[in-house]
Amino acid sequence: MNIKCDFCGSMIDERSQSCPHCGAPLSGVNRTASGQPQTIEELKAWYVAHNLPPEEITRFFIGKDISEPKAFGIYKTETGDFVVYKNKSTGERAVRYKGADEGYAVNELYQRLKAEIADQKHNSPGAKPTALKDDIFKKRNCCLGCGFVTLLVIMMIFFIAYSVFDGVPPRGYYKYNGTEYYHQNSKWFSYDPTTDKWLEAESLSEYINDDNADQYKYSGHEGTAFEQTNWYDNGSSGSSDDDDDWDSDSKWSSSDSWSSSSTDWDSDW
Questions:
Q1: Helix (H, G, I), strand (E, B) or coil at 235
Q2: Distances in Å between the alpha carbon of 253 and those of 97, 107, 214?
Q3: What is the C-alpha to C-alpha distance for residues 63 and 44, in angstroms, rounded to an integer?
Q4: Rounded to whole angstroms, how far apart are CA atoms 184 and 18?
Q5: What is the spatial distance between Cα 47 and Cα 44, in angstroms, rounded to a whole number?
Q6: How far apart are the C-alpha atoms of 25 and 5, rounded to whole Å?
Q7: Strands 71-76 and 82-87: what pairing?
Q8: What's the confidence (pLDDT) of residue 92?
Q9: 251, 50 in Cβ contact below 8 A?
Q10: Angle at 47 (CA atoms; ends 123, 82), nearest 5 degrees
Q11: Residue 261: DSSP 8-state
């Protein structure tokens, strides 16, 4: 089964770890975060645990093949394939995925559901302050905001200065003495081609620094991409192995208002 790369649009094998055309990691492979649902039943449990409205309101049907317009869903066919779909406002069905990989299929709907929750919260009447409240907020916090910006600028200057003088090399792949490495957040990780695994390694900053980083930069890695490991820090407050999506911002509150009429039902996904 071939799927489309979200970055370059090329059709590639669903079993690939990354796109052979542009090198981008496949979104469906990023499903190793702790607590992230990987089966239809787990996705159902995630839905309930986050106090989401009934499926008739959200229009997300987990484990059901719904034919009526305006519906997202996932289900398993009699032949064992998993189908992720979207029924547009016209009733036309756009199939996002059909194949044997349940984890990939679940991740596709899971990511779309999380995006929809974020949009619904943003569009909720209680999400945006009124003009009067916003004006009061600005007046009360003008000085505080200026002070915060000043402090932020100072912190950035110190951070840049520290990075420059400390000789920290940029994040990325490196090759040193025949071994592949990945550097992030002042930590080094080495790749073992025998086991196709990444492990934390001793620091190479003594040998590879900001001055000679280009000499050791490496882009020909063909094994498991480091971005697909639990070591990888995607730039959020914690690394992916500390990320627990069961307790994320996707929890729904009774004060939130869900309106499926604000959903873009005309696009393919």
A1: coil
A2: 31, 23, 49
A3: 8
A4: 20
A5: 5
A6: 9
A7: antiparallel
A8: 97
A9: yes
A10: 110
A11: G
